[in-house]
Each structure stands twice: as C-alpha cells, then as structure tokens.
Amino acid sequence: MTSPADRLAAVRRRIADAARAAGRDPSSVALLAISKTFPADDVRALAALGQTAFGENRAQELTAKAAELADLPLQWHFVGQLQRNKAAAVARTGAVVHSVDRLPLARALARVGEETGRPVEVFVQVDLGGAAGETAERGGAAPDDVPALADAVAGLPGLRLRGLMAVAPRDEEPGPAFARLAALAERVRADHPAAAELSAGMSGDLEEAVAAGATLVRVGTALFGSRPLTSPRVTRVTGVPPGSPEEV
Ligand SMILES: *Cc1c(COP(=O)(O)O)cnc(C)c1O
C-alpha cells in the first residue's frame, strides 16, 4: 500500500521526467488531481501535501465536494460532460470548465460570468475520435468546428478562454492523437494568444501529453487509486445491473 504522499511524489516525478525529456521546464506543467468518486477526506489528504487544483466530472459531486471543502483554498475544475441546465450551478462554484463543446453551453456559462462580474475560465474540448459511442460518452467538438467555437467563446464577455482540452481515444496510440490536438491548439493560439494552455494527459498517458505540449495534466487513478467499477448513478441511469463492469 502506498501513501498519498508517495503517490503524489511519484506523479510529480513522472511529470518532471516527461517535461525534461521534451526539453521543457517541469514547472510549465500543472497537475490537476481528479477526485471523482473519492471522498472529501481524500482531497483533504492531498491538499495537506500542497495540492490545490482538483477536478470533478459530475455537477452534483462538484458542488457537494466544493461546499464540504470550502474551508480550504482549493481551485476546482469541471472535466465532465455538462448539461446546459447544470452549467450555472457549476459556474457558481468558481470552477474552471474544461468541457465546453458547443455554443449554447458556452452562452449558459457566460451568463454567470456576466452576472458575477468574474468571467468563467474555460477550455474548449476537442473530440479526438475513437470507437462509435465513445464520443457520445466523452463529449468534445469535432476538430473542424473547434476554431469557430474558440472564436465564439473568446468573444463572450462572461468567459475567458484558456485553451483546448481533450481525452485520447481508447483505440489509438495517444502520441499521434495528442499531436493532432497540439496542431489544433497552435491554430487557435494564433488568433487568441492568451489561450495558450493545453489540458491533456491522464494517469495512463501523461508522458505522451507532456511531450505534445500539455500544460495541465488531469490525473485521478495514479493519485487516488482505482475507482469502483460501478456507481449507483451509472446503475440507475443505464439500467446496468450491479456488478457489471461499467466504467465510472
Ligand atoms: C477521470 C478523468 C481523468 C483522470 O483519469 P485517470 O485515468 O484516472 O487518471 C482525466 N480527465 C477526465 C476528463 C476524466 O473524466
């Protein structure tokens, strides 16, 4: 059994090694700890070790955990598919939203930014392809649609565009997929120099993402351990019987 301190140190070392191998400064890659399905106490343990950025992929889990941990100076991020009717609740937590993949969602988030006078920080999520059904489950805008969506997001006063985000497809080597993402990010950055961040890389592929220029890696399993294979919500929504190998 490894401790949270060991796991955090190991992930930081992987990031630093990958950055140096790519000729990059290790401090140019930020670590976002994805705490989905893990209790608030696990977040506290990592926060006590100096980790401040945490991410969730469900609106209700984000709002509950952010409230429970309001005594800590944490920066929350939302990395899951977001329904428009939950956009305001997510934005009001102050979370950075990584999953903007369509204009109506961008507009819903922008309304909160205008209302509060604090622009909502967002990434435009790119669909890097993959098996049928994977995109529907994961979200993301088609690469061809990304430059126009990025233009629209950058033009909304209630939003601040930080860059692009993507998840590598499961049926492809991550390297070439992240290279496509990096090329698209460069194109967006040419028009929006402030949108210089790239959110890519998870426990299994952070090295490839850092090699492609990721400035923010989103790591769950390698920090917190394996997630349960079933969750009550997945069971209820999909009708999958308990015990089925349904990924969270
Ligand atoms: C769960 C999740 C991660 C973290 O994945 P791990 O493989 O557990 O590191 C990263 N990004 C998104 C969008 C996720 O949903």
TrEMBL record:
Record key words, sorted: Pyridoxal phosphate
Pfam families tied to this protein: Ala_racemase_N (PF01168)
Needed co-factor(s): pyridoxal 5'-phosphate
GO molecular function: pyridoxal phosphate binding
UniProt domain Alanine racemase N-terminal: residue ranges: 8-228
Top-rank taxon, per record: Bacteria
N6-(pyridoxal phosphate)lysine modifications at: 36
Location of region: Disordered: 226-248
Gene3D superfamilies from the UniProt entry: Alanine racemase (3.20.20.10)
UniProt KW DNA-binding keyword: no
PROSITE patterns to which the protein is assigned, alphabetical: UPF0001
Family of this protein: Belongs to the pyridoxal phosphate-binding protein YggS/PROSC family.
Role of this protein: Pyridoxal 5'-phosphate (PLP)-binding protein, which is involved in PLP homeostasis.
Protein name: Pyridoxal phosphate homeostasis protein
UniProt organism field: Geodermatophilus saharensis
